[in-house]
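[Solved] Which block belongs to which protein?

Original post:
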Amino acid sequence: MMNRELDALYHSTNQQTLAQWQVTQDIGEPRGAYYDPRRLALAAGIQPEMPAQIRALLDDLQQLAGRDPLADILPAEGFHFTFLPLTLPLYEPGESLPEKIRHLTMCWKHYHAQTIKINALRLVALPGQLLLAGIADEQAMAMRQAFCQQVLHSAWRDELLARHPALSLPPLFWHSTLLRYGATYLPQTLREFFLARQGRDYGDVAGSLKLARINYNWTQCYPLD
């Protein structure tokens, strides 16, 4: 996907979300956790330094919704961008990984510690979530495509497909989820938060790739390499 196409996708995603919010003014039905909060998954990604403008954004979000029991806000220590989510949360903390993990680490050795950069960060809204999404450089896009294909031709194919049952592979967005809301739609206060900031450029981030066992928001991260 070309940069202009991804930029257009983020814009159209926001427009679709705004249309849904206009139809439904309340938060809709409650929902359970997006992912198992205790078990760990396998994923590749980066944990970059947090720029000051993003820290301020998270602080504002915490001030607004930190006391809302339905608002699951990304803690600063979990700041990350996923390169490729590989499995659902399958593993108990401390559980040994299957022997075939060597197939995955063999695939990963060509990407370990490579630096990727994600530019033009902006807020993207889903009906019940707020994302911070950007445009990866061409090298990062090519690496993700290549790694995804390697995993699809490895012993981890089924786990990867289970993690992405209805999405294109690799995923189109380059993002970090800042907030997950425990209902179908965000409340009006968080919609207004997004509307006031949707046009802002939050800069760029860069970081070294790692393959890790992680919880859903990367506040627990155990590198495999």
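(Second protein starts here: sequence line, then its structure tokens.)
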Amino acid sequence: MPRRQRKTSAAPKQEPRKGNNGLKHRREKRRAAAETPKDSPHTYRPEELLSPPALLSRFTERATELIAALPEEARPTQAAVTAALRQAVLEAFRSREEYVARMVEVDLFADEPNQSARSLRKGIRTALLDQGVRRVDSPDGGSELFVVVEGEGEAFEVLRPAYVDQATGKLVLSGQLRRLPGAQEGDQAAGEDS
């Protein structure tokens, strides 16, 4: 039979897959980003936010207003106020630089090839210890570091550890506990059996 006379069966038209491949989400995200005004609070503006002279001038203006409200004999000199504000701004920038440097170190550590979750956790905890932050995994002896968030009973399960700044003794992040019903009674019975 000549080729012209042969009937070819067309492949059935395939419908696009309806799985979640993320394309729709990415398009919506791009569209939302394009529609967001440039002066949105979500837009990072380093020239405005991180300019030491601009911050210092705003702080000085506000400090001058506050000092004007004080009685004449209790007012500090303008030079003392400016020096104190300048020192505070510089310390804040140093703290931010140190924080950013630590975050970069953690990101670089996490980005190393063949990194397992266990070694990543160990590296992050080592970085925390280097910074003087202690992780508390148990409420024993430190119950003020934890908050009970759910459940009833006498025994506890740690949902989130607590973090303490060792230099100051301040709580960085409180831990979370869940109360477990009857678990303590079961623990006592198990102890009596042995």
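Accepted answer:
You had them paired correctly. Confirming on the second one: The chain has a mean pLDDT of 75.
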